[in-house]
Amino acid sequence: MVGKKWPIVVAAILTLLGSGYGSAFGMVPYETYVYDYEGEYAVSPDAYVPDRVLDARDMGIVSGNLQQPADLVAGEDGDIYIADTGNNRIVVLDGRFRLRREITRFVRADTGETDGFNSPAGLFFSGEGLLYVADSKNARIVVLRPDGELVRILEAPDSDVLPAGFVYEPTALGVDPAGRIYVISKSTNMGVIALNADGQFDGFVGAEKVAPKVLDLFWRLITTKEQKLRSAKNVPTEYNNITIDEIGFAYVTSSAIDARNQYNALRNRDKSSQYAPVKRLNNMGVDVLKREGAFPPAGDLVSSGRVSRFIDVALAGHGIYSTLDSTRQKIFTYDEDGNLLYVFGGYGSQKGVFRSASALAYRGSSLLVLDRDTAKLTVFRRTEYGDNIAEAIRLRKERKYNESIEAWRKVLKQNPNFEMAYAGVAQSNMRQGEYREAMKHYKLASDWENYFKAFAEYRKEVVGRIILLIPFAAVLAIWLAVRFFRYAARVNASGWRKSGRRTLWEELLYAFHVMVHPFDGFWDLKHERRGSVRAAVLIVLAVMGADIFRTLAGGYVLNPTDWRAVELADTVLTVLVPFVLWCCANWGLTTLMDGEGSLKDIFVASAYSLMPIVVISVPATVFSNALVQQEAQFLAFFSALAYGWALLLIFVGVMVTNDYTPFKNLYTSVISVVGMGFIAFLSVLFMNIMQRMNAFIATVIQEITFRL
């Protein structure tokens, strides 16, 4: 991990020194950041900085401050519409954020009477240039022209499909290009209410299917009716906000998901929509939001007991969208694939942070955020860094790959720690057939899924160039292997006639004879002294070396990470410690069960049994560099073959060494494995006691020294 931290630290320093914006210079009260593939917090230049903060006086409103403003929307005419919920009005601002008009009353065409709002909570500006208002406490939708003229009123829907006792209290809404209206109603967990253009009920869309657990079903079978009524029910997720994109798909947010489930889904990189706080619903209500980033769009990775709760979503164009987190008052921005672009904002009363942010909306490249508690509007201006990211994504969307690469390189100059930029360059490399360059940039982006795709294409190129050499290389490798095994067989055969001490080389080569002739081999290891402790130690070290070699030289299909720090402690814990525990436990047990093998015999036999791991895993590690992810099962097969072969040899070796029957050997082997666990437990307990004793003695000495 030490090797990994330094590039991140250096990149962060370069980022702060190279950017013209940022909290590093005290310009904003928050820190803009992203998360890398490993989930590490990485500071980035500011993509947005606060331009101005406006209260009612700054807006030119003389009739009183805003009260509990709930929503805002930017119209196609450039005006900004604010739902001033507490004052039962719609405030309209011009392009300079000055008051253009207040909409408090309107005239009903059917009766000629003047009517008004009662807690307007949600706004949407349609493609037809109409303002839709979720008149919450009046249980209706009011459709207005931008000047405040009433177009129509859509009363609460009436349908036999609606459940008994259904309460219609619209809090958010959206309208697709076909005029279909989607409504979020408070305390409704059946999904989004879909209405046709005339306000008639069309059904519910986007309801999450909830399957009860088996334990819950069993519990309901044995509980009484009163207990069932008091118990928690399996109900779908309740949505809290909605917006519609240019093709009519609905982005919805939810803050009612179980915190533990949401956090686990985020940390486990769950790409499903089951515990997703933001979704994109098509016309059939199916979630089609892409979650191809390192982590799904669900907010902060650091829970601190509280997960991010999304309460609004705004669309910036070209697939970019931002979500508002009510937990920490932050704004998370993602691209259409679900890659995190930047996070900024926070809790506070300074310029650029919020007390209780309630809504956000884009107006061109500017981002507008409404604060419910302070009744203020914050206008964020996009920086050069944010412009470069948006430009790179736009060019990629328009398939202008050469220009896109240059745009991403500008981003990398400002933030060399931004993995998304490397992925953007790699995508453009892929489109242009530059697969080796794509591999390099995907590796820097830690995007292993696409790395394997680029590698597969690059492998096709290489194989096409050396196709004639492959058969010769295969024949040469087989010929060398056959020659070596014949040589080992000759040396081992000559050992029968040799008396006296054998060389270390002869003892090592005898491991190959044991691999294919275990019964004769283990008998001779014990009775003819064809092996030795020194050779056994070297074989164990070779197994440890093979494990380290796998980490250092294995292909990315084996070790999909760019940080290949060798931890010797890991190898000791996974290879040496289990081997020593096995030898000690098996020897201790077999001495009590008429075993004929000494500790030395069991050690030598067990070590020689590990030779298949070295023989198979080393070539497999080399071969892994030519495999793609879909071919990983070949490596799994060879790994299973190596370890299965080694375990079989250990079983035969212990049986021959102790002169056991197969059944008795199986019994003692199982008990030996249990003994390994017991020895490990006692060892850990002993070390813990020694640490406590050491701490106690140190405390006593310190106390005595202090008193003297």
Q: What does this 3D model show about the protein?
A:
It contains 19 helices and 27 strands. The chain is elongated and about 120 Å long. The chain is α+β, with helices and mostly antiparallel strands. The protein folds into three domains: about 1-30 and about 395-465, Alpha Horseshoe (Serine Threonine Protein Phosphatase 5, Tetratricopeptide repeat); about 50-380, Neuraminidase (6 Propeller), CATH 2.120.10.30; about 500-690, no CATH class. The strands form eight sheets. Strands 3-27-26-25 form a four-stranded antiparallel beta sheet. Strands 4-5-6-7 form a four-stranded antiparallel beta sheet, with no helix packed on it.
Descriptors:
four-stranded antiparallel beta sheet; alpha+beta; 19 helices; Neuraminidase; 3 domains; disordered N terminus; Serine Threonine Protein Phosphatase 5, Tetratricopeptide repeat; 708 residues
State the CATH superfamily name of the largest domain: TolB, C-terminal domain
The major beta sheet can be summarized as:
4 strands, antiparallel
Strand tally: 27
What proportion of the residues is helical, as a percent range? Answer: 40-55%
Q: How would you state the average pLDDT, rounded?
A: 87
Integer tally of domains:
3
Q: Which fold name is given in CATH as the topology of the largest domain?
A: Neuraminidase
Give the low-pLDDT segments: 1-25, 228-235
How far apart the termini lie comes to 44 Å
CATH architecture of the largest domain: 6 Propeller
What is the CATH class of the largest domain?
Answer: Mainly Beta
Walk me through the topology:
Blueprint lengths: L1 H17 L14 E3 L5 E3 L4 E7 L1 H4 L11 E4 L5 E5 L4 E5 L5 E5 L1 E3 L6 E3 L3 E6 L5 E5 L4 E5 L5 E6 L14 E6 L5 E5 L6 E4 L5 E5 L8 H9 L2 H6 L10 E4 L5 E4 L5 H9 L10 E4 L28 E8 L2 E6 L4 E5 L5 E6 L11 E7 L2 E6 L4 E7 L1 H14 L3 H14 L4 H13 L3 H10 L3 H19 L2 H26 L9 H13 L1 H10 L5 H21 L14 H23 L8 H10 L2 H13 L8 H27 L3 H46 L1
Antiparallel strand pairs: 1-2, 3-27, 4-5, 5-6, 6-7, 8-9, 10-11, 11-12, 12-13, 14-15, 15-16, 16-17, 18-19, 19-20, 21-22, 22-23, 23-24, 25-26, 26-27
Helix pairs in contact: 6-7, 7-8, 8-9, 9-10, 11-12, 12-13, 12-14, 13-18, 14-15, 14-16, 14-17, 15-16, 15-19, 16-18, 17-18, 18-19
